Every structure is written in structure tokens, then in C-alpha cells.
Amino acid sequence: MPLDHVVHTVIDEEESGSGSSYRTTLRVRMARLVVEPPSVFEAPATRRLDDEPIPGEKISFSQLTKYISSGLVMATRLSLTRSYYRYIPKNVEIKGILIQFGGWKQSCEDWERKSNTSAVADKYGFILLTACGSEFGMFSTIFKTKPGFDAGACCTSRDIDDVEYVKTILYRENSRRLPIYGYGYSNGGMMVQTLLCHKVIISGVTLNGILAIDYDPESSFAKCDEVYHDPRHYQWRSNTSMANIHCLDDERVPFDGLPPPKLKDRLNYYFGAYVFPGAKLPAVDRNMIRWAERVGCEATTSTTNISQWTQQIEWSCPPRKRVVSIQRSNCTYHGRAHRVIKTSDLDPASWAAEFFLGIGTST
Questions:
Q1: Counting CB atoms within 10 angstroms of each CB, which of 28, 116, 170, 301 has the fewest?
Q2: Residue 307's closest CA among 343, 351, 345, 348?
Q3: How far apart are CA 342 and CA 340, in angstroms?
Q4: Strand-strand pairing, 33-34 and 76-87
Q5: How far is Cα 270 from Cα 7, in angstroms, rounded to an integer?
Q6: pLDDT-derived band at 220, boundaries 50, 70, 90
Q7: In terms of Cα–Cα distance, which of 122, 133, 239 is closest to 186?
Q8: Which burial class, exposed, middle or buried, applies to 344 when counting CB atoms under 10 A from its CB (0-12, 13-18, 19+)?
Q9: In this structure, are residues 352 and 183 in contact, taking their beta carbons and an 8 Å threshold?
Q10: What mean pLDDT, rounded, does the chain reach?
Q11: CB half-sphere exposure, 193, CA atoms < 13 A
């Protein structure tokens, strides 16, 4: 059998006092998955250079997960081959680990080529880890896979434990217990907010992302509160800082949480955010208020105009904690608003690096 195929194994087992009988059915369809005997979560890593490389080294490992075939109750355990990139700047003082996440349908290579975060890592002294979404992203088929991260309610067609995936990466890479920062776009931004809920990272900046840990706004807020305040979750990582950079006219993850006005955008929104996988996304301003409350900030805010089109709103927070909302107007001037990343007045990756390091603040 060729490599990088899925093997779905269904075992119907009937037992009696004198013995057991087994009936095994094998189904094969294209995807980069292999079945392995259940053992431990982590298999030995393999290292290789990608055919279309980005800065750094690509590292792969196996992650066990469960898969339930349609019409069956029993789950089959599968081992996914998961990957990420590690990039270590040369001749700079390392100040922390930055793990970045691209959007739905974006390969990790495409995201790094678009964001060029490795240049930011060089300038500010971060070990850069580029996470790669699983090939079970929304609307993946046997003919074409679409990478995605499972932030809770979005954006995979299977339950993939991407929180555990990130924990495994950081377990491998953070033997020095460096500060861990997260930066993510769209679905990757959702993943960063989920990781902040679980306190897997201490600080995060999301770009056109939102909290999507559960399937409607109130349950997302409640679930994040629950796991964030769970005493079993990294209480020494209590100095959370979180920022979101968002276009007010975002048509894919609307700022106000409502369907966009244009018919085409509305159809894409409903078929993406509502029908599949069935999630309702919170309004950005409500989400940021809840983050401020969760972290322990006061309700008072201050506003700074970065430019004519961009303003920064910051909550009054205890020392070593920050919550910031950057709102960008008229992003459609540059094309589809949701796809806007770097503009003449704001480079989100560089802004995020200075946010992580506290550059330009007294806290």
C-alpha cells in the first residue's frame, strides 16, 4: 500500500465463555494518516527538509486520536502524522518561543511565506515554531485536503486534539522553560485564544480571530472561564496578556458577530460559520470585554489612534497583564477585509513581538 494513506479499521467483536470471534473490515481512502497500535501519545520524531522549504527545520511526530465511522458507536484509534517547523535565529539573544498558526486552508509553509514571521524572530530574538494544521480541515475530501486547527468549534471535520498537539511541540522545544507566546491568523487566531484559555501560552496576539472554544458565544465564554480558572491548569502562568487585531468590516469573522451585509459574503458566512461546523461566533468587542474580566482588568479603557484608520483600545490591567483591541477601519480598501494582514500603518507580527516583550509600555 502506498504511504500517506488512511486505513480505517472497524472491529466487530462477539465474545462467549469459550472463546471469541472477530470480523474485521478494512476501508482505505486517501489522506495522510496511518494506523498504529495504541501505545503512547508521542512517537519518535522524524526530521526532514520540505520540498518547498521555509526557514527552519520541519519536524514530524505521531499523534494518536479517535475516529468514529458513520453508523458506528465504537471509535477507531488512528495515528496522525503531525508536523511543525522550528527556526532558531543566529547571533541573537533568545528571549522566548513564538509559536504561530495560519488560517484555515493555509499550509504552514504558505502562512510563513505570507507573514514572514521569521524576519520578526530574527529582529526580536524568538525561537519560531510554525504549527501545521491537520489534514482534517473543514471540507477536506479524499481528493484534496484543507489544513485546519481544532480550536473547539472550528475548523476541522473531525475531533482533533490540537491543544495536546501544541503541548507536545512545546514539551519537545522548551526544555529551557522560556516564555511562550502565540500569534495566529483567522482559524489560527481561534487556536491561540483556546490555548490562552488553557494557559498553554502566557501571551497571545490574534489577527482576525475570535474565541471559538465552543459552539455559541455564551458557552464559549463559560467554557474558557472554567478551564482558565481551573487550579490544575498552570497557575504559575497567571500573568496573561492578550491582544486582538481585527478589521471592522471583516466579512468572514464579523466584528459585531452578525452576518455580513453582502449576499456573497453572507452565504459564505452561513455555510462556513453556521452550517458547518455549526458554530456561532461572538462579537469581537464582547469577547475582548470578557478577556479583560477573565484576566482581572478594570472596565476602564484608554484609546490611542495609531493612524487615521486604526485605533488601539487598552484596558486598565494589573501589572504584567494586558488586554488590547486594535480596530482597523476600511480594510476592504486593500481587498477582502478578512485577508488583510500587513498594511502601511500596521505590521501585526512586529506589533505582536513588541507586545510580547513589553516594548513601549511601563508594565
A1: 28
A2: 345
A3: 6
A4: antiparallel
A5: 33
A6: very high
A7: 133
A8: exposed
A9: yes
A10: 84
A11: 35
Ordered by where they begin, the domains of the chain are 6-13+66-357 (3.40.50.1820)
Interaxial angle between packed helices 217-228 and 284-295, expressed in degrees from 0 to 180 and rounded to the nearest 10: 20
Write down how long the chain is: 363
Rounded to whole angstroms, how far apart are CA atoms 262 and 268?
Answer: 10
Distance (Å, whole) CA 248 – CA 250? 6
Q: Decide if pLDDT at 352 tops 50.
A: yes
Q: Which 3-state string (H, E, C) describes the chain?
A: CCCCEEEEEEEEEEEECCEEEEEEEEEEEECCEECCCCCCCECCCEEECCCCCCCCEEEEEEEEEEECCCCCCCCEEEEEEEEEEEECCCCCCCCEEEEEECCCCCCHHHHHHHHCHHHHHHHHCEEEEEECCECCECCCCCCCCCCECCCCCCCECCCCCHHHHHHHHHHHHCCCCCCEEEEEECHHHHHHHHHHHCCCCCEEEEECCCCCCCCCHHHHHHHHHHHHCCCCCCCCCCCCEEEEEEECCCCCCCCCCCCCCCHHHHHHHHHHHHCCCCCCCCCHHHHHHHHHHHHCCCCCEEEEECCCCEEEEEECCCCCCEEEEEEECCHHHHCCHHHCCCECCECHHHHHHHHHHCCCCCC
Given a contact cutoff of 8 angstroms between Cβ atoms, the answer to whether 183 and 193 are in contact is no
Question: Can the peptide bond before residue 254 be classed as cis, meaning omega within 30 degrees of 0?
Answer: no
| Residue 32 pLDDT greater than 50, yes or no | no
Contacts of 73 (CB under 8 A, 6+ apart): none
